[in-house]
Amino acid sequence: MTSKSSNKVPDVSVNATPTNPVPLIQQDLYFGLDIPGEGKLSDAEFQAFLDKVIAPRFFGLTKFNVKGQVKDANGKINKENSRLVTIITEDTPANKTAIAEVRATYSQQFNGKGSLQVTNADDLKINFGPAADLFDNSATPKLIEVDAYFGRNIPGDGEVSQKQFQKFIDNVLAPSVPGLTIFKAQGQVRSANGSITKENSQVVKLILEDTLANETALSNALKTYQQKFNGAGELIVANQDVKVSFGAAADLFDNSATPKFIQADLYFGQNAPGGGSISKNAFQKFVDREIAPRFPGLTQFDAKGEVKNAAGKIVKEDSQVIRLILQDTLANEKAINDVLNAYKTKFGGGTLAVFDQDITASFSTGQTSNLTSDQLVSFELQDVLIPAQSAIADVSVNLDYKPGLDNSQFRDIIPVAKFVKDKLANSKNPNEFYEIINKNLATSLLNNRSFDLKSVLEEASITLDVAPNANIPFAFSTTVAIAPNGKTDALVSFELQDVLIPAQSAVADVSVNLDYKPGVNNNQFRNILPVAEFVKDKLTNSQNPGEFYEIINKNLATSLLNNRSFDLKSVLEEASITLDVAPNANIPFAFSTTVAIAPNGKTDALVSFELQDVLIPAQSAVADVSVNLDYKPGVNNNQFRNILPVAEFVKDKLTNSQNPGEFYEIINKNLATSLLNNNSFDLKSVLEEASITLDVAPNANIPFAFSNTVKITTDGKTDELVSFELKDVLIPAQSGIANVTVDLDYKAGVDDSEFRDIIPVAKFVKDSLMNSKNPNEFYEIINRNVAEHTFSNLGLASVLDSLTITLGVEPNSGIPFPFTDTVTVTANGITQSHGII
């Protein structure tokens, strides 16, 4: 699951002027085109991804065709064609989320293929076209890097040809700067009406001193380009914080105490001293022998260079640029020096090295590498074909890992997902129920020796959510859970929508759950169609208007389990039926009744209803109010209570609250107590428990989603849970955005005076997350620290049974898919679980 981007991003390429002068950053996304198990992605396929996924999220982008090399765990070097997409965006959470969505979608569409994101947010000056202040001018001139993006679309007049552009470089730009490197690219810009314009582009990289003279010369060249080509677009990105070295040097870059990623661009001129040129074949051999073995990966650009020699003559040459994303260690510094010296020794050619020491790099392989103990990993495959039943299903897989595993024991999810999909797609037997298909699938997955899941899992479960089809014309689901010892549990569910219940002149959605006994055999699964038909007929034939829904449902569940033709008693642990009744003339609010029945005839009944938009004057707020009445097992039909006066009592009690000093928790506790003690209802004699939940809309007092639930038993014992959610909280340590849910589980019987004001608790949690700065702390560590400090520092330990904080992290540069981390703190210790959705 992913969140939507606002798409409010300035132009990335060359044709538009930003309307909102907020901080801009550069995002470089690297996409390899070799897809695991599926061959190579074609130019057309990547362009389709660019057009449909990337371009709509941003106002512009620039694409470079490059080559990549990556060294795998065994030291083997894998080469592939790649694409670099450069985007200039506002530095906002929405745009960070949009970048993460792009990466997650690439992985999802192309079989888990990973990507690399490099973010440069440090000391960039970005201008769209000529400007009076293209870059700062240091008191003592220093070398900076300037990227000039030239769009070649001429407004209203075709395109700047390659020959025309080269003439502009030779006659205007090259004479005014000491040297430059030219890269070919393709740009895309989205107009105000949403249409996307594509154009060939040229990117010229300059290494020059940040003097006023150079700034003026560059600005004049840009003006000339616009005048000559009718206002063709330009984008200037000045990186004012780089280290530059012409050839090997003793101090190429700084070495951090804790290694961090930097970007190194190595420029290799192809002119050979004394005449001639270094062939592409010879250079590629040099890359393969001298560069690739020394580093985990690289990106290679074809380029053209122009340099002014000592006599002022401009010398042209083909060039190759190698980009490395590596840590700033002494070992890597030595390795780069060795490469530069080797090039000089072998070819005698000159080199240039440019280092950007303030970037953030994120490598993804389609899954996180930071999973820890008590781990539940989940994934979903949508629209999987199951030929055996001519049906389509969404398939959810949960892998529940054993506690205490180290990172090396987690399995690569991509081949597991492929196995599941292939197994379903290859099912052919039309006589197999979905339950059998699913059970066989779960068993074969756990027994697959190449995955060896038995040694690391506590349980695997697979759910098939089958779309209505010709065989089963209603929503249907089957879940199979299997343990390493082979023990299986199976649950089958289906839903019948808009079933008429004449006895009450009402319509209901009917959900049926069949919980099979552990270890059920394949031949013991029941055909679901006649079961569904029985349920529907029983309801539509109800005629007694004096029967409550609860009685109708209890009679239905009992007759279903006792039906000899189905013989469900011999194979089920329990059957349950829920009637979700639409508001109607008799009950004008959402109402639900669930009856669960075991083979021994023991029944449990739960009745729920919801009142929407109830005014609570004491807090000047509006809330949706949910009430659950949990009846005692074996309740008789004549013991069910009329729900209408109960609902009226709840609503009146809330709308008559007037004390502004009462927290919602107190209001709700008093309401639940008075409901259970109301003699006219006499709920104590028939209920095990009643619970009331207030879901309060954000308001002037509590400006976020807030919920309070009170459970009260017939002996007067109360439990109270308070929950709230903070949306779009920035977590700087991981450059991520999360929705944060906090649950405060109060001790049973807590006094009214012991409830805590929720506002300072929310502020403490939010501030603690937003003040996280250490990039070496994973979300798990951050969340654990925040939960511990909240529990101990705010005096919550004396009144709470537990505090739970869940981070629902949006896809981001580090984890390109939705990720959750939950920490629960009690007086006895901490539990933590994580999940990938």
Molecular structure report:
The chain is built from 14 helices and 34 strands. The strands form three sheets. The protein has a 17-stranded antiparallel beta sheet. The chain has a 15-stranded antiparallel beta sheet that branches. Helix 11 packs antiparallel against helix 12 and helix 13 packs antiparallel against helix 14. The N terminus is likely disordered.
Q: How many strand segments? A: 34
What share of the residues lie within helices? 10-25%
Strand content: 35-45%
The description of the largest β-sheet is: 17 strands, antiparallel
Secondary-structure-based class equals alpha+beta
Shape: elongated
Q: Please, what is the average pLDDT?
A: 87
**Could you tell me how far the N terminus lies from the C terminus, measured between alpha carbons in angstroms?**
6 Å
Counting H and I runs of at least 4 residues, what is the number of helices?
14
What is the radius of gyration computed over CA atoms, rounded to a whole number of angstroms? 33 Å
The parts where pLDDT drops under 50 for at least 5 residues are: 1-21, 365-374
Task: Please outline what is shown here.
This protein has 837 residues and is α+β, with helices and mostly antiparallel strands.
Short key terms for the protein model shown above:
elongated; 38% strand; 837 residues; disordered N terminus; alpha+beta; 15-stranded antiparallel beta sheet
